[in-house]
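help with this.
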Amino acid sequence: MYNMENVIKVIISGLDNAGKTSILTALDKKYDFRDEIMQLKPTIKVKYRRTRFLNMPAVFWDMGGQEKYRNVYLKDPDVYFSETSLFIYVIDIQDSEKLEASLNYFEMVMKYFIENNIDVPVIITFHKYDPDIRSYEEINEDIAHIRENIKEAYSDFNILFQQTSIYDVISIVQLVSYGLSVFDKKFFELSLLIEKSLNDFNCTSLILFDQTGIIISEFYNEEIEPGMYIYLLESIKEHLFLLKRMEEEEYKHEHDFLNIEKEFISCLHGFEVKGTLFFISAILKEEYKDAFMEKFSDFLKELQDILKLLLE
């Protein structure tokens, strides 16, 4: 058992085979993870995974979803759910036969939080929302129905809904990034800067990563054409791939990675704040390159000032 003092405790829960461990595996790997996921076995009781988010250590409690383990958690909930900092609940949106059971279990966990006055932020992810089923009317109706019922039933909680798939690693990185970012109000100032700079630079996307590939803050142009969206995702995945290679092969972070394709520039810039590495990922049209380079140093200084405060 970990000492939870000054540690973010993230519970990731749901029924068996919902995809909880797959999500954490994908988050760890960032790329080339599908073969490992296919070999995963059901989680026995609870597994713990450590990471860091800025200056905060975090422990993910990967809670096995088999019925016998769920009964153990609910029989002695103080052991498992007390001091929860973030509650991530995973619903297999492709398994319609288990939706009712999954929602019942969710309600029992939420009952514990309510009875103990634990105002925990909640993320509900509709997992296995794979590209080939996103147009299925029945599945989208299930998502809409569940969202509305939960929002109405738990209006006092801060609940975020997302769709994730192991075939879309960005969706999984976003899942955890959004959840971890609720722990410091300075993120609002950071978000304002990223959003403003996206518009100033005429970027298609502007993303701040930490050295492990966790997204700290991000904004996207609202008018992304379908064809550009595919290129955007591939470019971001390439940046995640580069971060992983830097971590494994000890690349020097001072090096900028630039790629020009289809009149778009993809840039990954590394910098350091208080001994911690960060990376800015920017994708923009080639015609805006000069203006981007002129304004980038001022943006970077302002960004570093905010991150210094976050790392205090």
